[in-house]
Specification:
Elements lengths: L4 H23 L22 E11 L2 E5 L5 E6 L2 E2 L14 H11 L5 E5 L13 E7 L2 E2 H7 L4 E2 L9 H13 L4 H4 L2
Parallel strand pairs: 3-6
Antiparallel strand pairs: 1-2, 1-5, 2-3, 4-8, 5-6, 6-7
Helix pairs in contact: 3-4
Length: about 190
């Protein structure tokens, strides 16, 4: 069988790409961004698992109920932030608890398409069974938006999240601008 020169060249190019991919995965791995020819992402969250979902409803200022593609409804605690508590049976609420929840409801009304992003530095689930995830809608980091508006604060913990430094910087700006709870509660 006679094969034309363009077909041979195309075949050689495909073989070269396959070999390059194999060598690259053995030597240095494919970048965490999944880009064969680009470098590894500098964002540690890029290595996190991304799960699409739809907002069912907001529970409080930092927790939402999400319907996942497999039909499972999960409670999701937004990573890296802390919102004032709303009253619970036997527990009083905190200043700005209800406004914080209302703000999250405005950012994530029922039916909103979201992406849940895990943080490889954190556990997947907390002691209450809630998924621990960053929540993004339309490419927007919802935790960041809550902090910027003064509806939440950057959460301090012994094991800070990957976005902690950025969140603290945004909180400082919100405090200086006396946004949300930084005016109402101080």
């Amino acid at each position: 069988m006679i094969v034309s020169k363009p077909v041979r060249l195309l075949s050689l190019a495909i073989v070269a790409l396959v070999v390059l991919a194999g060598v690259r995965s053995i030597v240095g791995g494919i970048g965490s961004s999944g880009d064969l020819f680009g470098g590894a992402s500098t964002d540690p969250v890029a290595a996190g698992k991304r799960t699409p979902g739809v907002v069912a409803y907001v529970l409080d200022g930092d927790t939402v109920k999400i319907a996942t593609p497999n039909g499972r409804d999960v409670r999701v605690r937004l990573l890296g932030i802390g919102a004032p508590e709303i009253p619970q049976p036997g527990k009083p609420g905190e200043c700005f608890g209800f406004p914080s929840r209302r703000h999250l409801e405005q950012l994530l009304p029922a039916g909103t398409q979201v992406t849940l992003v895990s943080d490889p530095t954190q556990d997947d689930v907390d002691t209450y069974g809630r998924w621990l995830r960053y929540v993004e809608a339309g490419g927007r980091d919802i935790g960041r938006a809550l902090i910027r508006s003064g509806a939440a604060a950057a959460r301090d913990s012994s094991d800070p999240v990957s976005r902690h430094a950025a969140y603290v910087q945004i909180e400082d700006q919100a405090r200086e601008g006396r946004a949300g709870m930084w005016t109402a509660c101080n």
